[in-house]
Here is the input.
Amino acid sequence: MWTLIKGGRIIDPGHLDGKMDILIQDDRICRILPCGSGVDGMIPSDAHVNTVAADGLIVVPGLIDMHVHLREPGHEYKETIASGCLAAAAGGFTALCAMPNTRPVNDNSQVTDFILGRAAKANGVRVYPVGAISKGLNGHELAEYADMKSAGIVAVTDDGRPVTNSLLMRRAMEYAGGLGLLVISHSEDDNLMANGCMNEGPVSTRMGLAGIPNAAESIMVMRDIALCELTRSPLHIAHVSTEESVRSIRLAKAAGIPVTCETAPHYFTLTDAAVGEYDTHAKMNPPLRSAKDRRAIQDGLADGTIDVIATDHAPHSSVEKDVEFDQAAFGVIGLETSLPLGLELVRKGILPLPELIARMSINPARILGIQSGILEGRSADLTLIDPLLRFTVDSSSLFSLSRNTPFDQWNMTGRAVLTMVAGKTIFSLSSPG
Here is the structure.
């Protein structure tokens, strides 16, 4: 099986940037040559060739989402592994990390095996399970990391719940570090969060809603940075939303502490004003913050403090969202809107295009220790992007089973038009089915 991608602008940050042709044989990239260099002549005369005209398109290493809630097992009415993988492919993602807060929790090899088995039957998106830090996410006893690693996990986290016991978090980092596993921190002080349901500030005061202060996040970020410095085990901070967190991570990196972090598109796009008239589709945890925090997130992306853009894709049904704001579930979906929102950073001059691609592909792969990149001999995991394609987000036509997006009816520019894993097209905008 031969595939020829012709005439696209190839961007592999720090490696390639130019109009080139890519020749793929079966699942591997076999040649990358400048346009017009005669790559066609390298294909056997009797071979069937699938030619993809990529003029005007950008070809990048397959996008990787480090933070996705697939909900299966246990909450299949919100999302399944199959539907989540389809939404990911439609968003241009060739790989994702599945968070462990399922039912049962992914705190043992049997649940890890189940997730990987279901993923193998889906559409081809690579699924990397993340195991729980503690058994049952209860924060009391470490899970069996070695057992889960042998089954296929790439990291551990209690995402959705903070590890409030500092000694347990230290032991988790030591245990995971010894196994070569990444620890992902859900940085939150439960006591400061209390019964808050949105950002603490003028908007929450006006609306009469209990607020969540920035310190609820930043205090735990600083604690985990201190534990990272103590153990020297790699630490990744999830869903950074505050100016104080960005500042602490910037200082930690300057001091040589092995910490990385991510933010989500809603934090560099929206503020707490998006809550509007008690819109539960703008309710997530951590919450949307102030304009000052949004600027700090954008600055953190621009100067390299924030390594990764991840979606924190958190599907919920109308049962959890069509209720009073303070009773609604935290979380929004994001797999199908992440790339166009990221491209808006490029249009605003906040990030050069290659840096955006790095935040969404190369950097997540490096942090997770998985393969990525457009190189001869490497698996053909590729995303083709039309940067000028305009469309309107319609939540009713998204591939996710849930509709909880704050971006419904937004006009966007730029999207993935073809997603390929191991040389196989798993999503094409022209034939999404």
Observations:
- The CA atoms of residues 126 and 316 lie 23 Å apart.
- The chain is about 30% helix and 25% strand.
- The chain has a mean pLDDT of 97.
- The two ends are 21 Å apart (CA to CA).
